[in-house]
Amino acid sequence: MNQAVSNTTRLAAELEDIGVKAYLSLQQNKGLLRFLTCGSVDDGKSTLIGRLLHDSAQIYEDQLASLKSDSAKVGTTGEEVDLALLVDGLQAEREQGITIDVAYRYFSSDKRKFIIADTPGHEQYTRNMATGASTCDLAVLLVDARYGVQTQTRRHAFIASQLGLRHFVVAINKMDLLGFDQKVFNDIKAEFAEFAAQLGDIEIHYVPLSALKGDNVVERSSQTPWYKDGTLLELLETIDTRRELSNLPVRFPVQYVQRPNLDFRGFAGTVASGVIKVGDELVALPSGKRSKVARIVTFDGDLPEAIAGQAVTLTLEDEIDISRGDLLSQVENAPILANQIIADIAWMDEKPLQIGQLYDLKVAGKKLQVTVTRVEYHVDINTLAHKRSDSIGLNDMARVALELNEAIAIDPYTLIRDTGGMILIDRLSNATVAAIMAVATSKVAKSTQRFTDYELELNALIRKQYPHWQALDISKLEG
């Protein structure tokens, strides 16, 4: 602990060396990586983040003093401090020594800026892990070297891959307790690789480390001469996770309609994919009305173009009806309007899924109603085998068919997250019960667009009260 360089001293020296303006410019132009730590309970996720921050000199002097005081309160003895307390801030977390909610930390190295999401390992809080993974580009998956790959390790890896993460660092922790045995490392590596072969096209790096002692976290360890790859920090600094969203078709979900006066009507949102230029013709969905981009407005002035990830306000040449939740897209590469979706679902509620029950669905700012009409298959987390089952409970993963009460523009989640990722909400409790990733869509039938909430609720009620009754085919309701 006494070998740590004060972050305050380091920052002061850097400012004196290059100047404030040069320092700010350097920080602004660094790339940003969002990553999460996940894995089974007590694998050392919070301690790893604390060690990463401590050894990279990211803890200020007042934070370190507070950390020492907090460590004494929770029973840490001697000169050591409990690094997990940097991210485990809730009283219940400190009392039990576990992570409950997602904790976010920011830090910066010489090469990159980072936002870390420390997620809980307990099965009870898997929903929080999924929340953290939904905004990240890389997963650091912790494995306790003493126990190897656990059920929750597989569950977190599978959920992260379903949520679009293609880059994994498997951090085999607590190697100091096993004498940094290379065979232990190789056995766990082989075990996880066999499981990960079923997750599709993902990139995996393996690193043996000790979060408690600091081996191979920031500095290379003399205890692992057989390990030739980089430390955890070196991997985080160099792995390329960029998704070329600018090369994809234009998707601009409208988050807000700005109308400050009679002379201005703009549509605010973040460009989900593609490049929008002044003069481009866009189509508004679901209305199908077309217009050209007149201006791209930002707080700092108008832009000639906006790329994926930029938050802007668009004005159009024509006065067409566009509301929050609508989607602006290229005319030639517009998504189809669909009211039937095949999707992967991660169930997050204690109450199991009710087939035929009406739920609220939120996607890219739009809210509508949906029913789960059937379960295609249930995923066994240990083997990833597909099983036939209509029962979906807490932490289950499955593929389902959804039927919406209106047609919306949807993309496959693997193509564009913002227009393919959804959440399912219980209409009575208003609780988020599931994360949904669209896989495929079906074009809307004209008659289906005429459904009312009453018709859907009536159909759901019949299915619930009379499960053996043949469910109404609401696509045939006429007049």
UniProtKB/TrEMBL annotation:
Pathway(s) annotated for this protein in UniProt: Sulfur metabolism; hydrogen sulfide biosynthesis; sulfite from sulfate: step 1/3
Documented EC number(s): 2.7.7.4
Keywords: ATP-binding, GTP-binding, Nucleotide-binding, Nucleotidyltransferase, Transferase
Reaction(s) catalysed (UniProt annotation): sulfate + ATP + H(+) = adenosine 5'-phosphosulfate + diphosphate
Ranges where the Tr-type G domain occurs: 30-248
EC class (word): transferase
Cited function: With CysD forms the ATP sulfurylase (ATPS) that catalyzes the adenylation of sulfate producing adenosine 5'-phosphosulfate (APS) and diphosphate, the first enzymatic step in sulfur assimilation pathway. APS synthesis involves the formation of a high-energy phosphoric-sulfuric acid anhydride bond driven by GTP hydrolysis by CysN coupled to ATP hydrolysis by CysD.
Family to which this protein belongs: Belongs to the TRAFAC class translation factor GTPase superfamily. Classic translation factor GTPase family. CysN/NodQ subfamily.
Complex and partners: Heterodimer composed of CysD, the smaller subunit, and CysN.
Record's protein name: Sulfate adenylyltransferase subunit 1
Annotated source species: Shewanella youngdeokensis
Annotated gene: cysN
